[in-house]
Amino acid sequence: FHIGEREEKCIIEDLPSDTLVVGNYKVQRWDIHKHDFLESAPGLGMFVTVSSPSGEVLLSKLYGPQGTFSFTSYLSGEHIICFQSNSTRFAVIAGSKLRIHLDIRVGEHFLDESAIQAKDKVNEVHVRLEHLIEQIHHVTKEQDYEREREEKFRKTSEETNSNILWWAIAQTLILISVGVWQIKSLRDFFISKKLV
């Protein structure tokens, strides 16, 4: 994605609780003379801020033009990940565009292939098995979180439907009572005028 040099850009990630999130990014600055993004942006860094659904700041750190950040979600819900450059130029002259390449991995622990190749086949199978077990636990956590969200949504829908039902019943009773009152008033009017 692209942002201005002094601009803040936030991304929302919906995460289950106790989930490791690892993010890699790389910043490129627009070069006016070459009309292209430079491969690296020396001297430019990024403030990375991560907030939990309750508003608690989980991570707030300055990184270089490329880096890796990680955090663990303690609550389930929408986590906000914000990026802002540490440019010291004033907003008027900081019109340069930045391109940020971002890769966010949620809940996965990637295997170090060089370490696996150094061990024998039994250890390799054991490490891969542990990795698969971790992935199964992560998928189970994701399913539990989605189940919680579905249950909360269903409860809200049922409450809304019952409110609509009671509102319809109240409207019907009001209409019936107004109709009875109008009939009684009309009857009394006709009796007082001796038309009936």
TrEMBL record:
Transmembrane segments: 164-183
Membrane topology: Single-pass type I membrane protein
Domain of life: Eukaryota
Domain named GOLD: residues: 8-106
Keyword Endoplasmic reticulum among record annotations: yes
Entry's localization field: Endoplasmic reticulum membrane; Membrane
The entry's keywords: Endoplasmic reticulum, Membrane, Signal, Transmembrane, Transmembrane helix
Pfam families xrefs: EMP24_GP25L (PF01105)
GO CC entries: endoplasmic reticulum membrane
Predominant location category: endoplasmic reticulum
InterPro entries, per database record: Emp24-like, GOLD_dom
Record keyword Endoplasmic reticulum present: yes
PANTHER family: TRANSMEMBRANE EMP24 DOMAIN-CONTAINING PROTEIN (PTHR22811)
Similarity section: Belongs to the EMP24/GP25L family.
Name of the protein described by the UniProt record: TMD11 protein
Organism taxonomic ancestry: Eukaryota, Metazoa, Chordata, Craniata, Vertebrata
